[in-house]
Structure prediction request, 363 residues.
Amino acid sequence: MKNIKFLALFLIISTNAFALTYQIGQTNSSSATQPTKLPAKTDQQAPVPSLEVVQEELSQAEKDFAIAKKMFNPWYGGPLITGSGATLPQGLINVQPYIYYVVNYAAYDGNRKSRSIKNITEINPKLNLAVGITDRIDIGILINWLHVKRGLESTNHLADTTIGLDIGIIKETPFIPGLKFSIAETFPTGKYEKFNPNKAAIESSGSGAYETSFALTTSKVVWWSLLHPMVFRFSVNYTIPTKVSVSGFNSYGGGFGTKGTVSPGNEFFLSFGYEFSVYQKFVLTIDVAYEYENRSTFKGTNGTILGFPAPIGTRSKDVLSLAPAIEYNFSENLSLISGAWFSVRGRNIANFATGIVTLTYTF
Prediction:
């Protein structure tokens, strides 16, 4: 039995010795035909961070995760006055009805003094429809109806109609605001002449002029407060009206026998809008607006009122106004906005207070 064990041990040792000899031979042969390679340099092991560093990194990661859970994609329906610097994407349609309730309770004179007048109230429903033609071009139409009342007298007329085209110049990015150029044409579909003398003060629902408007609008979402993103908007608009032929009592004055041509003044409108997300569905907004209009002039026969020459034409005028509002966003595409728009300071213009409710839906 011992002899068998010694024989097995001898075979194992012999086999391993043969294999080792063969391997050395192969290595020497390979070394003779190939250049000698230096051993690869091993990387030094990175130092192990201290427990304090690890704990600090973990704490920061937890803070970032907590903020990320609270952050959201903000929804905005827009403030009441200032538009967006973005255009409507191709194929989408936006429907936005408004209700304006206006009270003209006073008038600013040429010295910016507010003088009380008999209240003139207006109910002005509007409908704005827009469609995206391309991702950078959209087209829209604004239709107005006007109900005006003073005391026991009231009138109802279609107001002027506007068709507009928006052209996107710059698309908004995380660091660059959006910018668009707009051109619009207002058509004189409202009533502007041949008023009933007993209702002359409340019959006007239009200017009688074809008005061409040019505008630049910019807007940007910012994250100065990570949990409450906000939007800044800015728009500048300039309007050039055509001359208007008028007769009788009209939107610019006049009286019995008035006949001639009015040259309305050009208009300049500037507005700044701000939106603050309380949370995704609830947004606070405000607009600051300034409007200036050049004086209008008249050539022709003034006509008379009570035997005296009828005044016709308007002085230059301007008004500064504010429009705070609240947005409730049912979804990314559906928003309800309600607020007020009122004058703060003006000259040769009505001192007004307006309540506005609008619903905007994109599909």
Q: What stands out?
A: The longest helix spans residues 2-33. The helical segments are 2-33, 51-70.
